[in-house]
Amino acid sequence: xxxxxxxxxxQAPWPNGRGTxxxxxxxxxxxxxxxxxxxxxxxxxxCDFSHFExxxxxxxxxxx
Length: 64
Known about the structure:
Elements (H helix, E strand, L loop, with lengths): L9 E4 L6 E7 L10 E4 L24
Antiparallel strand pairs: 1-2, 2-3
């Protein structure tokens, strides 16, 4: 697996407009309509999750 620098991750705004996800890996990198992906999403304020039809989330705290 090649090393990927953080600045090279595909960035996508959250559908609710209150944050950004940084995609690490995906079935279809950088494309909407994925069925699986691994992403980092800094949470800087309380807000509701954006809805993704038929997607089941697994959350993991990596810092803080």
